[in-house]
Design brief:
Layout lengths: L1 E5 L8 E5 L9 E11 L1 H8 L15 E9 L11 E5 L13 E5 L3 E3 L6 H4 L3 H14 L7 E5 L4 H12 L3 E6 L2 H9 L3 E4 L5 H9 L4 E6 L5 H8 E9 L9 H5 L3 E4 L4 H4 L3 H19 L12 E2 L3 H10 L6 E4 L6
Parallel strand pairs: 8-9, 8-11, 9-10, 11-12, 12-13, 14-15
Antiparallel strand pairs: 1-2, 3-4, 3-6, 3-15, 4-5, 5-7
Helix pairs in contact: 3-4, 3-10
Length: 334
């Protein structure tokens, strides 16, 4: 079968098209004819060599998958051949990614496509929605009426965080860097805060009467983690998807904050059956949110074919994409 593979680490141009073996069906899994995938930051971090220890043995990246089930393995009862499904299948170590004609996926990681989204639309949801759910629903356990600050609310994980927090009845605020992004977060129901115009002290005073936010969701990482601690109220909850930073945690102690860190691929990386089943359950909750029109994915205007995955990686790394970058699978003419 055809696949886009990396045979070395480096710049976005290292991808090449290759013929590799079609996966063999095994119990508890389904074989998917891949129709779409996406580009996530973890994809380019693996490709560049920053996270080379996670690289898939086949060299095939692509964490999100959407497609049609061709075969069902022993022990799988919730899907049949012909079902259109989506999920975050992983592209780490022994788990080959979605940038191929076919992918073998643990059935627990999947859900059926929402009725009101196409495969190319719903593929934008799995990794980011599971991450946001883990951060805000499982980790921070947000409650109705709480003040929630989402850093980077116009981003892939951030815009799902806003929508999940709104579904829980929270008052949601989001940091943005431009008027365009302010309109995006307003469209999802959040109050925009342009961090270029207001300091943390200023927006905490303006929007929380100096008390701080009940929950702060950091989707940015780096130095922004310290700003998240600063924006939190006493005994508040901070949750982050990127804590690869050395910092002074004195403020964490002084304010008695709790910190929840999210690395959503752990169930796949460590083959945790319970965690993988939880991913499938979360996706079914996301499906319900999509079908009730409480959740809408933000998708970049240009869809790239698998053969142009290098261009898609370059775009994501440039920071110029608005919304999730979707990749269209191989077709008969490829």
């Amino acid at each position: 079968m055809k696949a886009m593979v990396i045979k070395s680490f480096g710049e976005a141009g290292v991808f090449e098209i290759a013929e590799i073996s079609k996966p063999e069906l095994k119990p508890g899994h389904v074989l998917i004819r891949v129709r779409a995938s996406t580009v996530n930051p973890i994809d380019y971090k693996i490709r560049s060599g920053l996270l080379k220890s996670l690289a898939p043995e086949t060299g095939v990246l692509g964490f999100d998958v959407a497609g049609t089930i061709e075969e069902v393995g022993d022990g799988v009862s919730k899907f049949v051949a012909g079902d259109e499904v989506f999920g975050c299948s992983g592209a780490v170590k022994e788990h080959s990614g979605a940038l191929a004609e076919y992918q073998l996926v643990d059935a627990n990681l999947l859900a059926k496509r929402p009725a009101n989204l196409s495969l190319e639309e719903c593929v934008a949801l799995p990794l980011v929605s599971i991450t946001a759910w883990d951060a805000l629903i499982r980790g921070a356990n947000i409650k109705e009426g709480e003040y929630v600050l989402v850093h980077g609310g116009a981003g892939g994980v951030g815009h799902l965080g806003i929508q999940l927090a709104k579904m829980k009845g929270a008052e949601v605020f989001s940091t943005v860097s431009s008027d365009e992004k302010a309109e995006i977060v307003k469209g999802y129901g959040a109050t925009p805060i342009n961090y270029r115009n207001l300091s943390v002290t200023q927006y905490v005073e303006e929007y929380t009467n100096q008390k701080g936010f009940d929950v702060v969701f950091d989707t940015v990482g780096g130095d922004n983690l310290m700003r998240s601690f600063e924006a939190s109220k006493l005994e508040g909850r901070v949750t982050s998807v990127n804590t690869r930073i050395t910092c002074d945690l004195s403020i964490l102690h002084q304010k008695a904050l709790s910190l929840h860190v999210v690395f959503m691929i752990i169930p796949i990386l460590y083959n945790q059956d319970k965690g993988k089943a939880q991913h499938g359950k979360i996706l079914n909750e996301i499906v319900r949110g999509v079908e009730s029109e409480d959740i809408t994915p933000l998708i970049h205007k240009e869809v790239f074919p698998f053969k142009k995955v290098s261009e898609a990686h370059s775009l994501l790394e440039s920071g110029k994409a608005t919304g999730k970058i979707v990749l269209r699978g191989f077709d008969i003419s490829d």
